[in-house]
Amino acid sequence: MIRGYTRSVLCGAKAGLCSICGNGCLTRKYFLLGSVQLLSSSTHRGEDNEPDPREGHSSRSNRMTSPTTNLVPLESDLKPNYGSSPQMDDALGRRRSMLSERSLMDLEISTTKSEDSSEDESTPDTLDVVTLEDGQSISSESGKSQAFRRIYNNSNETEQIKNVESKFCDNRVSTTKYTWWNFIPKNLYEQFHRLANFFFLITAILTLVPGITNITPVSSISPLVFVLGVTAIKEAYDDIKRRMGDADVNRTKILILRQGRWTPSTWADVMVGDLIKVLSDEALPVDMVLISSSLSNGMCYVQTANLDGETNLKVRQARPETNKLSSESKLSSWTGSLECEQPNKDLYNFDGRIYVPGRRNPLSLENNQLLLRGCVLKNTDFAVGMVVFTGRDTKLRQNARDPPTKRSTLEKRMNIGLMSLFVLLFITCIICSSFSVAYMEEKYWYLSLEGVTARDKTVAFFKNMASYCILYSYMIPISLYVCMEVVKLCQTFLLEHDINMYHEPTDTPAKAKTSSLIEEMGQIDFIFSDKTGTLTSNEMELQKCTIDNQIFCLYDHTSPSSPETPPEHSPDSIKANFQSTTFGNVEIEEFTKHTLLQKLPEIGKAQEFFRLLSVCHSVLPEVDKNDSSKLVYQASSPDELALVQRAADIGFVFKQRTFDTVVIECPDGSMETYEILSMIEFNSNRKRMSVVARCPDGKIRLYCKGADSVIIPRLSQAEQRSFREWTDAHLEYFAAEGLRTLCCASLVIEDQVYETWNKRFEEANSSLEDRKNKVEGLAEEIEREMTLVGCTAIEDKLQEGVPESIFQLRRANINIWVLTGDKQETAINIGLSCKLLTGVSLISLYRDDPEAQINEATVKQELENAIQQFESKRREGEEFGLVIEGECLKFCLSKTSENIQNLFINLALQCKTVVCCRVSPSQKRGVVRAVKKARPQLRTLAIGDGANDVSMIQEAHIGVGILGKEGMQAAMSSDYSIAQFRYLANLLLVHGRSSYIRTSRLVLYSFYKNAVLSVCLLLFVCHNLFSAQNLFDSNSLAGFNVLFAAGPIIFFAILDQDVKPDKVFAYPRLYEIGQRNEQFSLKLLWGWFAYGIFHALIIYYGMTYWFGYSVVAEGGQTYDIWTLSIAGFSAVVLVVNLKVAVETYYWTWVNYAAILSTIAVWFIYSFLFNAIESVAGEEYWVTQKLWKAPSFWFFLIIITATCLIPDLSFRFIYRTYFPELRHIVQEIQMEGREQRKKLRQKGFVVKKPTITMMPLNSSGALLADQNGPKTHTGYAFAQDDHTASQFSLSLSHLLKKRKEKRKEKERRRTTALGLKKEE
To answer: 274, 287, 351, 530: which one is catalytic?
Structure first.
């Protein structure tokens, strides 16, 4: 970011080329056809220019047409300055002819001819440049142009009509997906994109054709209508909520200047050119240029959390020329106008000009004067601005985009299963149709098949093909999608309301942005985590510093090590290890804060060091609302805030910031004012921030702070030698303690040198081409030969529960990679602190020397050496961790270095953990993408808290955002958001795992139950010469997937638990069930389908044998086809619903009610349907007759037992002789439940199992047997189920309870005796 504070100087007409644009614009006066412009250095960016405060993020060269597109509306102002010439007269003549056709103020300036413009247009699109001094001929240039929009003050009635003619969009917000007239066609169009829905649509249409099938159209259409209707209702509900939200936004009140008064209006009524007044704590409805504010200097504070996720306050400032326009009368009579760029997505840059009455030249407008929609005005009573962008043109709406589409692995495999099921269905239809044609022979005389020709057989084949498609359509689980949506929504609801993931201090629960990926969290193999703000709390505190080769502790030092700190991690131990292993000849001695305060006047660099921390920053001070004597600092990063706060603690208090000054208070109470001449703010490329200031002593100083890798090479040679001798060892020591380091340097600049440099700096800052590189090049020139004044060491503490969570996740066979921008030592120390690197041997691909030559060859050589080292030691059973630096990673991720990328991925995937240091956001995304590409079967999760983590979060299969102190952008771009990293274990091990198991069972069961039904239909077809006749009643078939077999599996998929959540934490290896795809695969899918065929065979042949031959009805007759139909369908309903009971592990009253009520619904429906003759037809009173026969009920018992006993037997054998880990845990869980029950019967108080974790070192050594569960003592819970000795028993509580019971009995007896006496 560049901010220039020196005033632009108008340049005269001298010979030579312009040093800003190189086109001679300062040396020659030009007349532009289509506009009149007197060019000077001030007209490039306007007079009193303040460059973009966020410069460096993107170049504006592509968004500006030319520096010669500024307008001066009056040609009379220019004519005397030019004199007279033929070219001038000719140009003025053409200019007047153009002004007769359209107003000068309405002209759009186009510097070059548009590619799509025609030659016969009346308004010229070319830029004709006429040289006015030397009489050269007119020349023309052609190229692509970019038009600007001209905006006038709507409060001035004469100007308002010009905005209306421009036809700017309105400010009405509409985020709805549908309208009242396109909802049905658009929704149906989207739903029929699903193959299953489209297939059922075709079958429903076929049922309307007479003679195709005996299935009624209603029975075929009603399930489809139900599925479409449920989905449509959900879509309509969501759209109505969006419409209501839009209405609330559009009705929000705002003050608009109309007819000379501030008139309350709505956001929807705001138009481009309106002057609006925003009050404190109000959100901005539009993008507007700040005209004035309640603060005297024209500044205002805004919060942009809704826009970029950053919660810190940002400052915006009006032009001094407009800041006095605050009253209604002045604003109404103001005739100024704006010219600005067209709508675009760039949040950090803005180009525009404001035309102020009475000024010859327009003034430049930049991002510092732009307030964006979505921002909230803070700490400012009001702000007045002119609207430039409304509605869809605002930068907020321009940046709005749909998140990347992600689909879970289970859903992808389910779709493959559905496709294969469609193939099976069509093959079955072809086979059955072929047999039906083959049986068209004359020997079946009762079918009247005499004289059948080949043509008749062909017609019959296709007709039967359609019939079978309709009949076997029940093979496709039409309700599967609806059931999955309902189940996932309920699972998401349980996730968001889990008290174990609720962060009470910030009132932050877990949030789900999507419900379609919840089961994917049960299959995660890799976690890619940011460090700062994710593993750490992002609460920075400046702990130590090194000044003049001395280390000072800046916090209140009480003891070297707390009692809870292990001896090997105490500061004294770190110092001893550091001296013995790294720099044995360097003595590490730390001075206290008290010593620093005493030596402060004596140490020359100390005062300059803390002055640098107080001046070189972008922090904003504000008065505490509760205590006016205190200051509260608002910073863009926690690092800057920590530095300024610690400097204030030492005595150098940052007091005030104005447009170009910073005021600090020194320890002696004196005030010092620093005039800020230039500011070159931090960005990811420079990795440093610099401020050029005129100090109170009159000298100009450059203050610079940044990473040691960029500061040290810019020091003088003597300073670099001193750094390598002393300070480098101090920084290594700080990094060993896990502290973030920063170097601070200064340079005294001569006035003449600065003036020369500043002139070029302002020219580069005003350049419209390659501005960023020009500015950074000039920064390189001034940031040289600096003097190191000190280095800082900032502590960023680990979040609560991070080591425990990482330990659990690693026990769950999840690999964790840390991707951070910190240096290697800091990242390694944090990795050790959070138990990430505990017990692994490190392989380092890091080069700490800034002068080291890191190229493709050296990186390849290091990778090959690391692989050799890995292979030699892997045989010994060692586990490895890889540490790699961003410069090396650049070659490892390069598309042109595929061999190196393969070496890196193969090495990294075999390591237990990987730490990537000094990586950029694009490299974070590249690492995730490389792993996904190398191992497509692995599932990845990325977690972070800042905007630099967004690309990584969106690239991974699952993105999790931390609602931290770096804003909400990561959380807004993620699939799920949590408040703390420690909740990730609960998110994956509990919710992810259970959702994966439940959803897998839902899909497998859906295929199973439809196989049972459809195979029964197929067997009946085979039994009657493939005549495509239907066995079951059409209405019963229509309700099968919706009414008679849906409820139990839905509640099962919402509530079932194979093991308790606390057991998953006790035995994290239970999570591997999802990583190995044990619960869902195509093999399992077809296994369940085959099991459905087995049950169908039992039901059909049991039904035909039982009722067809051996059982007779009243009167000695056998039962008819309708009896078989009702009996068979009853058996199907009973078996498929009780199959859910067999699969259920966790029983609640809801499960009981769902199964019993679903079975009861079928019997009630059958009884009522067959009791109405007009509806039942030939089935009239069949159910009632059938129920009277005991053989029917006996049949149901026999068939159900025959189907389910093999299932129960198989499960018993499998659990007994081939148990899985979860089967063992279930037995432990059952044993613990029985022990608790016995203890409660004896009167003991037994605490319920919880997943509250205790410190890792609280119970002795860790026991994590890889072969099975053992008594877990290291990672303890409030209790464990399988050991009665760990139950919490309270004898005193028991005695107290018995005493209270005796008192209650005595009180009741006394009351009863009193009542008897009264009687």
So the answer is: 530
